[in-house]
Amino acid sequence: MNRRTYLQAVVATGVGAGLSGCLDGESGLAGKEITTQTPVPFSPADDPWQELTENRDRNSISASGRGRLQRGEYASWQFQTGLNPSLSYSLTVDGEHSLDVFPMAGDAYGVYRERREARFYDNVVAVGASDTTRGGEIGRGAVYQLVFDNTEVFGSAAESAVPFEFEATATYET
User: Fold this and answer.
1) Range of the domain at 127
2) Among 26, 70, 89, 171, whose CB has the most other CB atoms within 10 angstroms?
């Protein structure tokens, strides 16, 4: 028997056995409840910024902004620094809601977008934050992302849209 004939026989036998098991009422899925899981929403916000300003001088870059994230959305502020950077930011969320904030290197952002475990700068992460200020050194890198997250993938998510404001400053050596 050649390989093609063998594979056709295996597939036909498997399909037939599976169908007969489902139809006999004794085995298979007859009378059983089937549940499926819907993937958790996770996508970049199309246009989250109602206002975003950025300033740069010789040893720092700063930004401030107002945004709005729907449930399942995230947005980021990308920035570049020189040597030995540190980051400080404040976040204020309107109402009873909260957001997660994940500072990370630029290469970790690609991993994050694929829903995989990314390396965050844990010393400045905020999970379930509504009014917070964080600060500390961030690892070596050239490009960074400050991610504002309203998804359940890595933290918590609000049930509805979340309006927020932030201010951030990265300082570094030249």
Assistant:
1) 43-173
2) 89
